[in-house]
Design goal:
- It contains three helices and no strands.
- The two termini are 29 Å apart.
- It has one domain.
- Helices cover 85% and strands 0% of the residues.
């Protein structure tokens, strides 16, 4: 089943999230980079001291954000893999011996 047919599958027999998780992670990282750059630029726009503070804090906040995004996405994948494995176990249980 390709991505578009899985996306519009109203029976939800195919999971789309497991296919787009890498793209979502890339988007989260890109947003974190943009947010850090905006914080640094706006800090220097306000004052040199605030700019230096943002230059120090932005990488730390960036790392925390990326770590939280990664953990969240890994939890989502774990939930989907559990669902897939439970489905396989149920199929095996109902299969004739």
């Amino acid at each position: 089943m390709n991505f578009l047919s899985a996306l519009f599958d109203f029976s939800f027999s195919e999971f789309v999230t497991t296919k787009i998780i890498k793209i979502l992670y890339g988007i989260f990282i890109a947003l974190a980079v943009v947010a850090a750059l905006v914080a640094i630029i706006s800090g220097f726009t306000n004052s040199v001291g605030q700019g230096i503070l943002m230059l120090i804090l932005s990488p730390l906040v960036f790392l925390l954000y990326v770590i939280m995004a990664r953990v969240w996405l890994e939890l989502v994948i774990v939930i989907f893999r559990i669902a897939e494995n439970v489905g396989e176990i149920a199929e095996r249980k109902n299969a004739p011996l």
